[in-house]
Amino acid sequence: MRRHDMSVKQIAGVIMMLVFLAFTFLPIIWAIILSFRPKTHLFEPIWQSPAQLTWDNFDTLARSDFPFALFNSLVTAGTSTILAMIIGVPAGFALAKGRSHRKFIASWALLLLRMAPPVGFVIPLFLIYLNVGLLDTWAGLIAAYMVLTLPMVVWSSWTSLSQIPDELIEASLLDGATLFQTLYKVVLPAARPGIVATAVLAFLIAWNDFFFALIITRGDTVTAPVAIMNFVSYATVDWGSIALASIVLTLPTVPVIIFANRYIVQSMGGAVKG
Amino acid sequence: MQSYQGVQPVFQKNYNKMLYPAVFAVGVFAIVPLLGMFALSLTDFHLIKSWDREFGLANFIRLTQDRRFISSISVMLMLSVFGVIFQVVLGTLIAVGLEKIVPRWRFLRGIFVVPFVVPAVAVALIWLSLFTPTLSPINAFFDIFGITVPAFLTTEYGAIGAIVIADTWASYPFVMLLILAALQGISSDLDEAASIDGATKMQIFWRITLPLLKPALLMVALFRFIETLKHFPLIFVMTNGGPGRSTQATNYYAYIQTFQSSNVSYGAAIAVFLFVFAAVISFYVAKANARLTDA
Questions:
Q1: What value of ipTM does the predicted structure carry?
Q2: What SS3 class is residue B43?
Q3: B93 at A interface, C-beta within 8 A
Q4: Residue numbers in A near B21 (CB within 8 A)
Q5: Tens digit of each residue's pLDDT (9 = 90 or more) over B160-202
Q6: Domains of chain B
Q7: Domains (ranges, CATH) in chain A?
Q8: Residues in contact with A128: Cβ distance below 8 Å, sequence separation at least 6, in sequence order
C-alpha cells in the first residue's frame, strides 16, 4: 500500500460506501420508527412530531393471531429443517466422497429442484392435500417445506464436506469404523461451521416462505409471514403493526449475520473457492 | 475427486446407501408433484367445472395465443433483467470497494448482509410503505423543497421499478458475499506485479480483477436470474399484479389462473413452461459451477 493512495479515489470510495450504507439502512430504520409511531401521527412527516412515540403496536401484535402464527412458523420450519438435515447430510457426504459418474446429473437435478417454479409444486400438492386432508395441517406444510430445504441441504453439505481431507475418512475407516460412524464422529465435527450454517439456512428458507403457506394453510396453521397480511385490509392498513411484525419476523435471522455469512456463499451460491 | 483410491471398494456400497433416503424423499416430495404438474397440464381440470381427461396439448396451444401470458413473459424478463443488473453492479461495487479501495472498512461486510436475511414479505411491506406517498418519509422530505415525488406504484413502469428497487435492496448482499469470496481466491501477487510494472489501480481492476471475476459474476448473475423468475411476495404485496396487469409476471399469472380463476390445468401448463425455462438455465449454472470447482 502506497501512502499517497489516501487520495481522491479513497475519498470517493468512502462516499460511495456511505451512500450504499444509507440505501441499506434507511428502510430498516424507517421500519423501526414506524413501529413506534402512534396512529394519529402516522401521516405527518417524522420531523414534525419526533417525540410522539407509542407502545400501542406491541399491544395490538400481542393480542392478534401473530404470536400463534410465530409458533406455527417455528414448529414447521424447525421440524422440516431437522428432517432435511437427517436425510440430506448423508446424501451430501456420499456425493462429496463417494465414487459416482453421475455427479453432474446430481448437481443439475439439485439445482433444478431449487430453481423450479414453486407454483409447479404447489398446484399438485394443493390437489393432493385437498383429497387426503393435509390442507392446513403441520404435516402438510412440513412435507412441502422438504421440497424447499432438502435440495439446498444436500447441495450445501456436498460442498462443505468435500473440503474434508480424504485421509481423515480413510484413517477412520481403516480403524474399523463404519461409514456412518465416520460421518457422525469424524466428518461432521470437522465440518461443524458449514453444517451449522446449512441448518440455519434451511431453517431460514422455511421460515421466510410465503407462497407455500399462503396456498396450503388456513386459520389453524397459518405461518407468521402470511399472518402479517392480516394487518392489511381494503379499508385500513395498520402500518405500525406491520412494521413491528416485520421486525419480529426478521429477528430470528440475526444469527445468520453474526456467524454464518461466510458460509452463505457456499450454501446458497455453489462452490466458489475462497 | 481423485484420492478415493485409498478407500476399499467395499465401502462404496455404503456410500450409495446414504443416498437412498434423500433419493426417496426427493421422489416423494418433489418428483411426484412435478409429475402431477405435467399430468395436469395435459388435462382440462377445473376446480369448479367438470373436466375431460383427454385433452392433449390444448393448454399449450392456448398459451401461444394468450396475450396475457405473452405480456407476462415480458414483465418477468423486465423484472429479472433489470433486477439482476442492479444487484450484480451494486453487489460487485461494494465487494470490490470493501476489498480493494477501503479495506479498513471490511468489517462492514457483516452489516451489508442485513437486508439479505429480511424475510421477503417484510421486504415487500417495508418498501410498500416507502412507496406509499402519504406515508413515505421520502415524499415528505422532498415536499420541503416543493418537489412532488411521483407515486411509483400507480404507473406501469413505476411499479416495475419499485419491485426492482425492493428486490435489489434485498438481494445485492448475496452478490456481494459471492464476489467477496471470489476476490479472496484471487492472489494479490498479480496486483502487486502489475503495480510494480506501473499499472494504475483502475487498469488493475479492469484488466486483471474483472476478467478473473468473470466466472463468479456469470454464476451469480445466472443464479439471481432464476431466483427473480420466481418473484411472488414482492408482486403479491406491493402491486398485486397491477396497476392493470403491468406487474403480472409469469409465475404470478400461473398463480392467478390456478387459484383465482380456478383454471388448474392451465396454471399447470404455465408452470411447465417455467419449469422448462428453469431447466435450461440451471443446466448452464451447473456447468458454470463444475468449471468453477474444477479450476
A1: 0.85
A2: coil
A3: yes
A4: 86-87, 90-91
A5: 999 999 999 999 988 888 888 888 777 777 777 877 887 777 7
A6: 25-294 (1.10.3720.10)
A7: 3-54 (no CATH), 58-269 (1.10.3720.10)
A8: A134, B33, B36
